[in-house]
Amino acid sequence: MNQGVQKNTLYVGGLAEEVNESILHAAFIPFGDIKDVKTPLDQATQKHRSFGFVTFLEREDAAAAMDNMDGAELYGRVLTVNYALPEKIKGGEQGWAAQPIWADADTWFERQQQEEEMQRLQAENQAAMQEAEELHRKKMAEEREGEKDEDANAKDDPMAKAEAEVLKQNAA
């Protein structure tokens, strides 16, 4: 889980309504230089959603701020401070991903090409099998006709008739 963690951006939860980005900046500036402060707004009320993000220039400053501010009180509310996870964008092959939905378009096309290739190969195999079965049937039919021809030739051949008579006499 820590592989997606942004070590210089902190999630700050439990913010009071009165807290804005400048107050949040002032609360965290003692720990180091701050690159950015964001408090996402609720679209319906246009107020922040009781949490924000503070991005420090240095990872060590973010770690110090997290150690000192997690559980601290700001405007009468206890803060929860953790490393922030990367922003999630809906889409991608795994459902939620930190990439836009069109990012997996290439893999989709590759999968489509692979499926089409598999279907083509299966059709070729099936055609080859049918051809082999047809050849086998023809060969079997020719062999049966050859046996009939041999039987017919044996009836017309005087030597074959003599051999057959001798065999019959020896058997009797």
Helix count equals 4
Mean pLDDT: 83
Q: For the CA atoms, what is the radius of gyration?
A: 42 Å
Beta-strand content: 15-25%
Secondary-structure element string: EHEEHEEEEEHH
**Can you summarize the main beta sheet?**
4 strands, antiparallel
Describe this structure in words.
It comes from Forsythia ovata. A hairpin with a 5-residue loop joins strand 7 and strand 8. 12% of the residues are buried. By secondary structure, this protein is α+β, with helices and mostly antiparallel strands. 49% of the residues lie in helices and 19% in strands. It contains four helices and eight strands. The mean pLDDT is 83.
Topology:
Blueprint lengths: L5 E8 L7 H8 L5 E5 L12 E6 L2 H11 L3 E2 L2 E2 L1 E5 L4 E2 L5 E2 L7 H52 L1 H14 L1
Antiparallel strand pairs: 1-3, 1-6, 2-3, 4-5, 7-8
Pfam families: RRM_1 (PF00076)
InterPro entries: Nucleotide-bd_a/b_plait_sf (IPR012677), PPIE_RRM (IPR034168), RBD_domain_sf (IPR035979), RRM_dom (IPR000504)
Protein name: ATPase E1
Please describe the structure with a list of short key phrases separated by commas or semicolons.
alpha+beta, 49% helix, 19% strand, two-stranded antiparallel ribbon, RBD_domain_sf, 172 residues, 4-stranded antiparallel beta sheet
Task: Compose a concise summary of this entry.
The chain is α+β, with helices and mostly antiparallel strands and 172 residues long. Helices cover 49% and strands 19% of the residues.
